Every structure is written in structure tokens, then in C-alpha cells.
DUF4327 domain-containing protein (Phormidesmis priestleyi ULC007), 75 residues
Amino acid sequence: MTPQVAHPMVKLQRQVRSLIDSKLLKPSDSIWKIALLYGDEWAYWKQELLSFEFTMQDPVSELLSVDAWDEENAE
């Protein structure tokens, strides 16, 4: 049995949830605010978010509400 590897977006969701728990972000903040905290990694995450049809103005809560990341619907 091979262990399942979590989708990279699951990792981002966990990190964003942690930022909200730490009061660094609010669920109502726009996704673009994540860029301020990710620096050099932001270009990668922005492309991932755009491929899942998020806009940078969407609230962070939209990102956290996704239950499953389906690659087939991402492109």
C-alpha cells in the first residue's frame, strides 16, 4: 500500500488556516494578502490559485471552504 500524498493546495489551506488562527489573517481578507506572507513562493501559489479559478480579490474563506482539490477541474 502506498501512502497518499496530500495535494499541494491542502498544504496551503493548512498554512492559511494557521495564519487565521494566529490572527495574522482574517477569513474576510482577500487572497492577495497571502502574498505579503509568502514572498518568493507566492508566484507558485498564485498560479495554483488561478488554475483553480480563484481571483486575488476572493476572500480567504473561499480558499478554506474547498473540501477536495480535483486536478481535472483545475485547467
